[in-house]
Amino acid sequence: MGVLNLQKAFASGYTERVEAVVIGSGFGGAVASLRLGQAGIETVVLERGRRWEITDAGDTFCTYQKPDGRSSWLSPTTPSLLGGTPIDVYTGVLDVKVGDGITAWRGAGVGGTSLIYGGITYQPTQELFYQVFPRSIDYEELNRVYYPRVRSILKPSAIPDDILATQFYLTSRIVLEQAAKANLKARKYDMNIDWDIVRQEIAGQKVPSTIVGALFYGINSGANQSLDRNYLKMASSTGYVQIRPLHVVTEIEEADNNRFRVVCNQINEQGVVINKKTIVCRYLFLAAGSIGTTELLLRAKNTGKLRRLSEQVGKLWGNNGDALSIVATSRQTNPTQGGLVTVIEDFDNPISPVVLEQFPFPGAPEGAYVALSLALSKPEGYLKYDASKQTANLVWPKNSANNQKIQNAVLDTYQRFNQANGTSLAQPPDANTTAHPLGGATIGAVCNPYGRVHGYRNLFVVDGAFIPGSCACTNPSLTIAALAERSMDRFLNGNFKD
């Protein structure tokens, strides 16, 4: 039975029955959706955000200069780091979770965080991978089978030299030069970006977007090859997958015959509930992101609707070692332009491995640039369910011994970098914000090595909630997708065992 049979009018109290439900359409959910569709499994994807179709006019997303409700998820203001500007309440593309000791940024929309993630497709080394993940995950298999499989869909590539040579990527060239002076390894990494469209931006044939540093609110030119344009498009084309935007899942629970009941609110673009729906499925895949997936599991455990969940749900959360700094130089930098195209890898740091990624940031001062550091954070954070508000509170011990160690390691890298180049830190590492929330329903503690939730044969976690707090000094999107590919192989081969 194909997707057309799923398109039914919902009356009050109607319960729909399908084989599989995927909650969320980011990297894990997109992978799960495609592989389920290719296997001929009738699947519904529930995505809280809206679709963001790229228009010829180049006006899908708002800009930093003129922010509006499209910028932020059901918020009266833009994020404080981006100005805190009053806006209309709308189902915007960037969602901010304010916690105790940390603020987490995540995407909202068909394609999840891929809509605003910058395109970085970055694989960890085997040595660092095993400082985070258990040996039950075979890195060699990931390297041989699953990382290449993801790349075959995303088709990432490094920035071409002709584009790097333009004024828009001046800071990236400066960083490569300065890293070489400091004897630090620096390189271009693969990006999920259509560089021909970037060339059209440079030539004035497309609205300037990538080249002017648009990122957190979305890329209007279409250069960003987000998941709605590859994995999810392919999933829909199978005829077995229906993606439903503006569907906010509120509850998951056990149903009869080893099935699951999923309750969701259909909302309009202002966040107003216009319908309540119930779906019963045989297979349930959680891909709402570290915070979204964990909150659903915590709510189900707190209300007794998934009684066999591990006591470890909500624990082992981390910020991927993210910290923002500002490097001051005596040169022109064009710090608000270009994109994330280069990386400095200080894996031999005497304190702890460190990665530095320069990226454009609105309002960054000329003669300086913003850099993001990544490190091996420990999963010391947690989410705790607040029954009175029906939400999960995020807690991060930013002053823990390991987080102090990470800060010292980052400062050590910058010290060597600055000594070699006559630069300085206008802002030392600030770890109050993360764009890479990870953990909460992790391997071993809550799931088996393939994402199957302990105690529930047909319930799976396929997103960043599975990863214990760090992605081994890399941006996590590629690894989330590769692990999801691995899990789906196991699922479709029928070999899930505790």
Automatic annotation (TrEMBL):
Signal peptide: none
Keywords: Cholesterol metabolism, FAD, Flavoprotein, Isomerase, Lipid metabolism, Oxidoreductase, Steroid metabolism, Sterol metabolism
Pathway the protein acts in: Steroid metabolism; cholesterol degradation
Span of domain Glucose-methanol-choline oxidoreductase N-terminal: 99-299
Any GO MF annotation of the entry: cholesterol oxidase activity
GO biological processes: cholesterol metabolic process
Enzyme Commission (EC) number: 1.1.3.6, 5.3.3.1
Lineage top rank: taxon: Bacteria
Keyword Ribosomal protein included in the entry's annotation: no
Domain Glucose-methanol-choline oxidoreductase C-terminal: 430-484
Gene3D superfamilies given in the database record: Cholesterol Oxidase, domain 2 (3.30.410.10), FAD/NAD(P)-binding domain (3.50.50.60)
InterPro entries, per database record: Cholesterol_Oxidase (IPR052542), FAD/NAD-bd_sf (IPR036188), GMC_OxRdtase_N (IPR000172), GMC_OxRtase_C (IPR007867)
Metal-binding found in the keyword field: no
Cofactors: FAD
Record-stated family: Belongs to the GMC oxidoreductase family.
UniProt name for this protein: Cholesterol oxidase
